[in-house]
Design a protein that fits this description.
five-stranded antiparallel sheet, alpha+beta, Hypothetical Protein Tm1070, Chain: A
Length: 210
């Protein structure tokens, strides 16, 4: 009986150690993320921010100081009519921080120019190149977004919606099917080609946080 107990104990230790090693080698392989924005470009409301970091997953052995493992965050910004209004691809080096202001960077140059964008959806693809119309998928980006919440239910088109509060949440991991990737890239290509400078979001220089 003692031998059996010792054998079971040793087996349990091996399983636990093996499981621990396995857990250390299993990461999050997400390449596609979504979030929303609300109360953007609204009088009295603070700006929202999307922050993206490069976790270094794309890095390989390197000489100190030599760039390695660089990624790009391809943004696709939709209005509340499900229309793509802006897109761009922003550089994020390994262990770098990208901070995108929703009002200034992501909704400040809308394609149609109809009215200021106040609410909608932001989609992000983790890519190894800087072309939002032809991404090369690569894991390694992680992101968070602040959200501006109004204290009352006054319609978005009406003034005096405040006071406002700020919440923050991680970008939601999502499944990127081929049809979705193609639709995002084609819509972005049309926006860049037909927008004559409009429809392209801007990138804050890396590590210029606010």
């Amino acid at each position: 009986m003692k031998k059996l107990g010792l054998l079971l104990s040793l087996t349990l230790v091996v399983v636990l150690l093996g499981g621990s090693a396995l857990a250390q080698n299993v990461g999050d392989n997400s390449i596609y993320f979504v979030t929303y924005y609300s109360n953007a470009n609204t009088e009295g409301a603070p700006d929202a921010v999307v922050r993206v970091v490069n976790d270094g997953d794309a890095s390989t052995k390197q000489v100190e100081g030599v760039p390695n493992g660089n990624l790009f965050a391809s943004f696709y910004v939709f209005d509340d009519s499900q229309e793509l209004q802006e897109c761009c691809s922003c550089f994020v080096s390994a262990d770098g921080l990208l901070s995108e202001d929703v009002n200034r960077n992501l909704t400040g140059n809308e394609l149609t120019g109809r009215a200021e964008m106040t609410r909608g959806v932001i989609k992000l693809i983790s890519s190894s190149n800087g072309d939002p119309t032809n991404n090369v998928l690569k894991t390694g980006l992680r992101g968070w977004a602040t959200h501006i919440q109004a204290a009352n239910s006054t319609p978005q088109t009406q003034p005096n919606r405040g006071p406002f509060s700020i919440t923050e949440a991680a970008l939601a991991d999502s499944n990127l099917v081929a049809a979705e990737q193609q639709a995002l890239q084609q819509s972005c290509s049309f926006a860049i080609t037909l927008g004559s400078g409009f429809g392209v979001c801007s990138c804050t220089p890396e590590d210029h946080d606010f």
